[in-house]
Amino acid sequence: MEALMIVLFVISTVTISYIQSRNHRYKIIKQIDGMGGKVLFIERKRFDTGPFLLFRRGRSIYKIKYSIEDEIKEGWVKFGDLFGPEWRLEEFGKH
Known about the structure:
alpha+beta, 4-stranded antiparallel sheet
């Protein structure tokens, strides 16, 4: 019985993590599309806090590369805060 509970816990944790990650990616794509851009790359950062000074458990940080009008840009977003995602979108360089 204990083994079944452990297996169910692991399956639940993996499923919730997958759904959360998919939801974050959807929100990133929606934000960049709303700016008239196209997402080129999304990477979840597990240990790198990027431009964010404070990072607590339960927060997810992503590094983003996207293009707007043939310009390649870089940005960061942190999910898990009380007031929604915190965006740090900045220019990366010319394409």
